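Intended use. Records like the one below are meant for learning the mapping from a protein sequence to its folded structure. Do not use them to infer anything beyond what is encoded.
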Amino acid sequence: MSNKIKAVIFDLDGTLLYTLEDLKNAVNYALEQQNMPIRTLDEVRRFVGNGVGKLMERAVPDGLSNPEFDKTFDIFKEYYGKHCNDNTSPYPGIMDLLETLEKKNIKMAIVSNKIDSAVKELDKLYFKNYMMAAIGEMEGVRRKPAPDTALKAMKELGVQPDEALYVGDSDVDIATAKNAGLRCISVKWGFRDEEFLLEHGASDLIDEPMQLLDYLG
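Structure written out for the chain above:
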């Protein structure tokens, strides 16, 4: 890679933040309100990655064809909006990494398939001193693995694909990076294990946040 890395674009859930507990609680609150069977933490782990609509489609019996789907999804969104930070926290080593990147004048952004308002709220709570952009799922912008949010982030950061790294924990992130022309660094502490990531094309994997520094060039 000829250019020195100037920016890092991060996925949010499973990469920067452990959010699984709060997602599971919101899913199960919505399901319980509708007298539907609840889901385990491991099931929710497998359901996440493609946005909350797809999460609920997978969690609700019969998915979109369930006549109560829309109401259940609305209950989830309202509950999660109020409780998205009850048990959420940055992964160990993440804040040290962000501080180090800032000292190295590396620009940073978040791109997520989480609802944009929740992305911005969590960014403000945890990362406001570091991120120049925080982009979630919104109307008119295709969600990952389409490259739209990553391209939007690069535009806001003022960098080209060969000047940035993309960091994520899932197959969706690997595909997003590829579609946006970015090199993907896959993290092993998130919602997908190493075997799954390798099966889905991961080429660069890290065990802990500070190992990302090795890829800055």
